[in-house]
Amino acid sequence: MDDSASTATVGDTPAPSFIGERLERWVETHLRYIMLAPAVLILAALTLFPTFYMFTLSFQKFNPAVDVPNEWVGLGNFARLLTDEKFHNALGNTLFFTGAAVGIEFVLGLSFALLVDKYIRRLNFIKTILMLPMMLPPVAVAITWKLIYQPQFGVLNDFLFRLGLPTGVWTSGADSAMWAIIFVDIWEWTPFIFLMMLAGIASLPEEPYEAADLDGASAWQKFRDLTWPFLRPVVTIALLLRLMDALRLFDQVFILTRGGPASVTETLSLYIFRVALRFQDIGYAAAMSLFVLFSTIVLSTWFIRRMQMDDSKA
Amino acid sequence: MKRLLSLVGTLVLSAGLAGTALADLTVAVPNGSEGDGLRAAAVDYSKLKGVKIEIVQAPYSNLFERAATAASTRSGVFDIVLMDDPWIPFFAENGFLVELGPFFKGIGTDGPDNDFLSKSVALCRNPYNTGPYICLPYVGNAQLFFYDPEQYASVGFPDGPRTWDDVLTASTELTGDGSSRKYGYTMRAAEGNPVVADFMPIFWSFGATLFDADRKVSLQTPEALQAVKMFLALAKVAPPGVESFGADEVGTAIAQGSAYSAINWPNWVATFEDPAQSRVVGKIANVKMPDGTSAGSSEIGHWTMGISIDSKNKQEAFDFMVWATSAEQVKISALRGNPPVRFSVFTDTELTSQEQYRHYPTLMQAINFSTPRPRHPQWPEIENAFGRELSAAVAGRISAEEALDRSQKAIEAIIAR
């Protein structure tokens, strides 16, 4: 029975006006949308509009001058990607960094997780210590490592010098700079992989392992045939998040090397930043950003499908 | 319904509170003494004139990006921008700066008074030294050559270095095999602005120029090659790792006594003479740039104030700029650590009699014989391209000849685009 209909027949209190009643009913019916609208509008303003604007800019030559319209260049900015050596260099650096950093982080993170789970399961203190680097702001991490790597007054060289070992130029050397940045990333983000893997390992069922023990399976066989297949969904998520994050590396490079020396550490994000804001060549920067966006989407989609196919085969 | 009304009410209240925070003038300045000086001046001006001034400070490397983005989006968010002088062509030639001529006429003059150094005022005209005024100079920087006279005397240069050959000879001797971790010379060789800023005085001292009289790139010359070779020779006697050094690393190396000579900005004098930060108090001399095959010339690096074309308070902005660059205020700014731009302040005996201002005569001479960076609206991109190749040469990845050839092509491509 409809309550509102029954109260309307009482007639002791004055009935609300027709428009007021309809408005109130409309608000009640649509309240969920009204409450969501600000968030959706803000999201649209902050993501959809910039993406659309970037898309349109990528077909134009941006002219910063007052009252000079942008020039429509069609696919010109995208064609420029094919011949721009600095872009190729930044792309190569980004891919090298991503492959090396995420690969090493994954191996270390998984190894630590297996070790901690097997031997020091109850030592929460160790887990907390291992997670600390991830909790620090990336800028603070980069500044700290900049001081550590400083060739003349840095802690690292001072330590090596006191031990009688050869010192290095770390972020200043053309051969060592990229590895110095990769090391910082490994130091900061291995705990993330570790945490994900540890959570995954903790949720594994015990029965299959008991059965494997009864069958006399070795540790490697248990890892290969039980742990790895069970962990695969967690591995997919962890690697995907790290890959997407590594592909847009900016803070560490900006603070530690600014892309030098000899551009050996210039990543795509840093190059796009320079082209857009320093050189005010915003159309070309938009084209590069779109390239990175679509590449990341394609890579992520391929990666997820590949893992799903492996799962279905297993 | 009540929930909806309260939401609207909250938004209206927030907008009202935000509105009360609006200032009469908004000024973009860099971090450091230049920005701090103008911030303090703005507080004084607000008390004096009742004008509310908001100072927005940003690190040097981000200030250009912020100001350029604000200008190109026509937001008018900044009324005044405190600009490094190489940025002037970008802002001026894209029409982002107000011409100051009519405002000067309003106060009965044609331009800045004669007390300003002529080189300082020349920067604020676009085209350089001939066009209309588009800014006012506020901080008078020009690079100085810093060296330790005691160390240079110990290797046969009791009067200090006169030429870059002297610097190289002395530095080679002082550095030795590097085992002492003390170096005769240090430099900024980090990619981009730092390496170019350190290289240009050497470049000019060998008679080279980036653009010839026809505004064509002129890097493939014997003079330019000689300059790059000298720069690379100096890098070999500098501390390991200069490939990532900026002004801070160079200044610190001098202040800690681990390097004995370098090019740097005059604001480092205060650090060298501060016992809390320096191990070389009273030991570091500063002189004009050494000569090469031509007379040595410092790179000028002034901070100048310009009014945004989109400012809604142009007259108020001009009034503040004139007040802040008056002789009285420039002296106060000097006391706050900013080198002046006026002859009367450079020669003020109240200042020059004090230890921390003893470099003023040298600095004024350096400004008077300085050279501006090439005035081109695409200078940030040109500087980046040139700096990239110089950095690669210092890192030993390419030769001096390759650095110049590649720079020539890269800069030509930038200009042609």
Could you explain the architecture of this structure?
The complex is a heterodimer of chains A (314) and B (417). Chain A has 314 residues and is mainly α. Chain A folds into two domains: 59 residues, no CATH class; 236 residues, Orthogonal Bundle (MetI-like fold), CATH 1.10.3720. Chain A is built from 13 helices and two strands; from the N terminus they run ααββααααααααααα. A two-stranded antiparallel sheet of chain A has the order 1-2. The N terminus of chain A is likely disordered. The N terminus of chain B is likely disordered. Chain B is globular, with a radius of gyration of 23 Å. In chain B, helix 9 packs across helix 10 and helix 9 packs across helix 18. Chain B has two domains: 193 residues, Periplasmic binding protein-like II (D-Maltodextrin-Binding Protein, domain 2, 3-Layer(aba) Sandwich), CATH 3.40.190.10; 200 residues, D-Maltodextrin-Binding Protein, domain 2 (3-Layer(aba) Sandwich). In chain B, strand 1, helix 2 and strand 2 form a beta-alpha-beta unit. The longest helix of chain B has 19 residues. With 417 residues, chain B is an alpha/beta fold. A five-stranded mixed beta sheet of chain B has the order 2-1-3-8-4. In chain B, strands 6-5-7 form a three-stranded antiparallel beta sheet. At the A-B interface, helix 2 and helix 12 of A face helix 1, helix 3, helix 11 and helix 18 of B.
- What is the string of SSEs of chain A from the N terminus onward? HHEEHHHHHHHHHHH
N-end to C-end Cα span of chain B: 59 Å
Largest sheet of chain A: 2 strands, antiparallel
State the helical fraction of chain B.
40-55%
**For the record, what CATH class of the largest domain in chain B applies?**
Alpha Beta
What's the CATH architecture name of the largest domain in chain B? 3-Layer(aba) Sandwich
Main sheet of chain B: which strands, in order across? 2-1-3-8-4
Annotated CATH topology of the largest domain in chain A: MetI-like fold
Oligomer: heterodimer
- Strand tally of chain A: 2
Roughly what percent helix of chain A? over 70%
CATH class of the largest domain in chain A: Mainly Alpha
Please state the overall shape of chain B, judged from the principal axes of the Cα atoms: globular
